[in-house]
Amino acid sequence: MTAIDPVTLAVLKGRLEQIADEMDATLYRSAFNPIIAEARDACHGLYHAKTGDTLVQGTKGLPIFVGAMAFAVKAVIAKVEREGGLEPGDTFLFNDPYSGGTHLNDFRLVRPVFRNGKLFCWLASVGHWLDIGGNVPGGYNPKATESFQEGVRFPPVKLFSAGRLNQDIVDILAANTRVPTSNWGDLNGQLNALDLGERRFTALLDEYGDATVDAAFAAFSDRAEALMRAAIRALPDGRYSFADVLDNDGIVDEPLTIALDLTIAGDQMSLDFSRSSAPAQGPINISHATTVAACYVALKHVFTEVPANAGCLRPITFTVPETTLLGAGAPKPMAGYTETILRLIGVVLGALASADPERATAAPFGTINALSLAGHRPDGSRWVMFSFFGGGLGGNPETDGLSHANNPISTATIPPVEILEAAYPVVFTQWALRPDSAGAGAHRGGLGAVYEIETLTDADVFLLGERGKVAPFGVKGGRPAALNRFAWQTPEGWASPPMVSKVTDVRIRAGERVRLETPGGGGFGLPAERSLDALNRDLRLGYVTPEAAARDYDLTTGETR
């Protein structure tokens, strides 16, 4: 293998990450739907020619896709090994969550990069498309019992063969969505990103040489492995367990458990999820690929110095039985995968905190609250608004949790109210922090938010959320945060869902509203240990009401707060 000096290695790392970042930026600028263009629910990277392992990711893409995209590339490689016929100019499309992870809305495009007639690596793009058919506009069907009710499912298929578009696939895509123009724009945005990435990467190979870049790829992975082994070795050997629950699956109103037994032995770690609940009837199942990707996100939160490539997973083994909701197979529904991975990430962080209590933080709000509103404009055209919403992060040893933050699975941004109102016939009549939503503590959690939305046309309402029954927990004596709450207007008044955090088959009239109140984060440390200045500030700003302060904090000293 070609020797490579540290300076060249550092330069190549920056150049390669910049290529992925440019691919991200290209898609953000050209996508039609706000979930990609504004919320940045997308990712790009470079992958190993033979294994499909992650070589390089950008700094802007959605973290959950970092691990999941490798499984997508592996699925394409498996198809090529079975069927052959790979050549320059091919581009594969698919959205199968069972082999590629996440859910049906996330469409992957995978393209080979050839040098001198030989496959050198793969480029890949993923983006969340607004609607892909199924029973519910937007794809988040809280009542789905199999994937056929969630949308159209594509195994890896050639969208381009030797540079020639397969129009039949485009026609099938257009026929299976309520918003074909939006999906067409997103597809072309991803193709533009791949085109740019291929040009930039080819120029880099021409500049540095194939052997040098290949050696850099190997060095990146080896360094990530070494750093991860060192991080694991710094933790005490032992077995550490943690568990948390989901409200329900939208079908059966019973909690489901995500349980982890984490074992550390020297420089190796194993994560065993065998004690988790069986696959669910409703759409909160996830595949093995998604579970591994979510664990990667959790580990990255803790071991921030370890680079984002496949090398960091070499010291780690995963036990994810198909008999659990974390290793479910077809045709189990997976639209609400985001709710499950949020709980899974919290469980991994909880187990690691047991191994190293100094890393303990309280739970974040723990739900994306996937809200879909859909109707028809006066001209008869269909509109589908999908968005996710913020909440509070958990208190930690250093400070209070962030308020109105996004979830720890993503770098995505919450779409701005101005963009949503411009794109859809809706008006946000309230968008504010939610008082008393944070878990009390020496360092309280961040605050959740209140969103009240009025529709300007009749609209169908769908919500797939969580934390409506089991609140985000506090640690070291901190209190839990407020529960998630959702309601909608009816002629008789406000109504709430029987399943608490999941809604379907609801229709509101023009001028009526829906209201979402998201949880805050859990508290860290005893509330009685919160400083007077901090509590007074919370009272002055309206973050905590006097009633909540009297209930949750120690006011027996007679001090004026």
Automatic annotation (TrEMBL):
Entry GO CC: cytosol
Molecular function per GO: 5-oxoprolinase (ATP-hydrolyzing) activity
Example GO BP: glutathione metabolic process
Short name of one Pfam family: Hydantoinase_B
Limits of the Hydantoinase B/oxoprolinase domain: 5-527
Superkingdom of origin: Bacteria
Protein name per the record: Hydantoinase B/oxoprolinase family protein
Organism of derivation: Methylobacterium currus
